[in-house]
Amino acid sequence: MLKGKVALITGSTSGIGLGIATKLAEMGATLAINGFGDADAIEQIVTDLSKTSNAPAKYYPTDMSDATAIDKMMADIANDLGPIDILINNAGIQHVSPVEDFPTDKWNAIIAINMSSVFHTTRNVVPAMKSNGWGRIINIASAHSLVASPFKSAYVAAKHGVGGFTKTTALETATHGITVNAISPGYVLTPLVSAQIPDTAQARGISEEEVVRDVLLAAQPTKEFVAIDDIAEMVAFLCGNAAKGITGSNVSMDGGWTAK
Ligand code: NAD
Predict the structure, then answer these.
(1) Atom of ligand 1 at shortest range from CA of 112
(2) In a domain, 42, yes or no
(3) What is the structure's pLDDT at 219?
(4) Pocket of ligand 1 contains residue 255 by CB under 6 Å
(5) Is 63 in the pocket of ligand 1 (CB under 6 A)?
(6) Tens of pLDDT along 10-40?
(7) Is 17 close to ligand 1, i.e. is its CB under 6 Å away?
(8) Which ligand 1 atom is at minimum distance from the Cα of 141?
(9) What spacing in Å lies between the alpha carbon of 35 and ligand 1's midpoint?
(10) CB of 142 sitting under 6 A from ligand 1
(11) Which of 28, 41, 185, 255 is 20 to 30 A from residue 21's alpha carbon, by CA?
């Protein structure tokens, strides 16, 4: 279904990004993989994805906080694999701290990786998508693109920014066969969430079990984490023809969190 389409998924060596890459591989896409991690594990991921898709898959170790490096990656992908048809902006990090103690370097990193990278990849792919008359841009935002939680000032600011950027770029590309949408998950049990449990426990002065029960899943009426595979299915749907009329949307997948 995506045979011959080139897809870049940022932050696809782990968690949600890896789940999306796996789904797009099952649909036959040619994949550009990005993110950090153990070199052997990443090599295995790329081999497995290429086997699944029966199409090329290539890894780009670009730091998504570096605009110049992103420009180079985008040019390299176009040379290596062809123009990008599907862009999934997914790379993201988190830091949990009261605002008065929030380290400036963490603020800058979160804004750069979670928000500004979305601008840098998007501005690079839009010209080729416009000349091809087709493109799909999907930004993995968060329930935190719609509502806030304490101690996550940079993350909430960045994700609200992604929500606004999604709407603006959707308007600018709407007559070119390009759709731009955000998906806003609630809590998904990935390394990003596991890693913030101890910090949240410390910031709130509660145990880690209480963080899961009373902070994370307390926000989600379903009382269940959102599944990576379900997010990947939503990406697949948004890439399909039936979603051609959906642009500028922010699709909540949060177990009812933002309905409250
Ligand atoms: P994760 O930690 O499992 O994966 C993050 C990915 O981003 C990894 O591949 C990592 O190597 C990559 N990455 C981090 N910094 C990078 C950098 N500077 N340059 C390039 N790659 C970098 O996290 P996840 O939970 O799968 O999160 C993926 C996205 O989903 C993020 O944007 C996150 O904000 C969003 N999200 C996650 C949840 C959740 O509950 N897990 C909920 C809502 C939204």
Answers:
(1) 18
(2) yes
(3) 84
(4) no
(5) yes
(6) 999 999 999 999 999 999 999 999 999 999 9
(7) yes
(8) 44
(9) 9
(10) yes
(11) 255
Mean pLDDT calculated for residue range 217-232:
94
How close is the Cα of 15 to the center of ligand 1, in Å? 7
Tell me if 29 sits within 8 A of 55, measured CB to CB. Answer: yes
What is the DSSP code string of 182-228?
A: EEEE----SHHHHHHHHHHHHHHT--HHHIIIIIIGGG-TT-SPPPH
Report which ligand 1 atom has the smallest distance to the Cα of 66. 18
Ligand 1, atom 21, lies closest to the CA of 35
Q: How many residues does the chain have?
A: 260
What whole-number distance in Å separates Cα of residue 206 and Cα of residue 58? 43
CATH of the domain at 44: 3.40.50.720
- Helix locations, the chain, DSSP H: 15-26, 39-53, 67-81, 104-110, 117-132, 153-173, 191-204, 208-210, 228-239
Q: Whose CA is nearest to atom 9 of ligand 1?
A: 11
Contact (Cβ atoms closer than 8 angstroms) between residue 81 and residue 34: no
250 phi, psi to nearest 5 deg: -125, 100
> Dihedrals φ, ψ of 57, to 5°?
-140, 135
Domain assignment of residue 208, yes or no:
no
Number of domains present in the structure of the chain: 1
Mean pLDDT of the chain: 97
Domain that holds residue 36: 6-187+227-259
Q: Is residue 252 part of a domain?
A: yes
For ligand 1, the distance from its centroid to the CA atom of residue 83, given in whole angstroms, is: 24
Give 192's pLDDT tier (boundaries 50, 70, 90). Answer: confident
